[in-house]
């Protein structure tokens, strides 16, 4: 692996960590950046596997809280319902992700124009929902009703289209189902753990034959950068959205998607 590849892998890892938990589509950013930088990993595994760095960032930040939940689960119905709500929300992604994996990786991941368009459309949707979301009825991410969690899980599956954003889909879904802005972001954090860990494990299994030492070095660098930057973003995000909402990220999506679309139409 030469120096330029190392820098690109580090940059993409940084980009992954900065964008994974905000509703702007980390995968869309990675794929567009990789397109314009001429970077393409074997089986598009790099773009999926380095997300585990962001997962570990969430686990690090919420380790104490999660440990308390699992310890309380045998005798606390609220803790048990929270664990079940995350698993219920995760289930649709398991089924649809396995069935559609090859199509997603070989078709959707290879269509930069689609990614740019989805960034723009998602930006407008985020701006609208940030304004018209109903009055919050749920302000604790650990107490979402199971039917609500399942609906969020199905909405999350829209993010299998790169450019939609997993966190964006879950946050928009939660807001429209009556969540507060902070609780929507927190539930998205919790749901990301099994979803991204599952995607990591399945993608690594599917592409085990195309990974070599170079690919593993790229992944290790991207993984480390994703972990560090994700820790910083998660600690900042909840306070920001509680005060300012999601409009900033809607405009971010529109600008990035618009610039990418113009560049693609110009032949870059």
TrEMBL record:
Family annotation (Pfam families): BacA
GO terms for MF: undecaprenyl-diphosphatase activity
Localisation per UniProt entry: Cell membrane
Membrane-spanning parts: 49-70, 82-101, 113-133, 154-177, 183-204, 216-238, 250-267
Domain of life: Bacteria
Top enzyme category: hydrolase
EC number: 3.6.1.27
Single GO cellular component term: plasma membrane
InterPro entries cross-referenced by the UniProt entry: UppP
Membrane topology: Multi-pass membrane protein
One BP term from GO: cell wall organization
UniProt keyword list: Antibiotic resistance, Cell membrane, Cell shape, Cell wall biogenesis/degradation, Hydrolase, Membrane, Peptidoglycan synthesis, Transmembrane, Transmembrane helix
Reaction catalysis annotation: di-trans,octa-cis-undecaprenyl diphosphate + H2O = di-trans,octa-cis-undecaprenyl phosphate + phosphate + H(+)
Xref: PANTHER family: UNDECAPRENYL-DIPHOSPHATASE
Other comment: Bacitracin is thought to be involved in the inhibition of peptidoglycan synthesis by sequestering undecaprenyl diphosphate, thereby reducing the pool of lipid carrier available.
Family, per entry: Belongs to the UppP family.
Function summary: Catalyzes the dephosphorylation of undecaprenyl diphosphate (UPP). Confers resistance to bacitracin.
Stated name of the protein: Undecaprenyl-diphosphatase
Organism of this sequence: Sulfitobacter sediminilitoris
Lineage: Bacteria, Pseudomonadati, Pseudomonadota, Alphaproteobacteria, Rhodobacterales
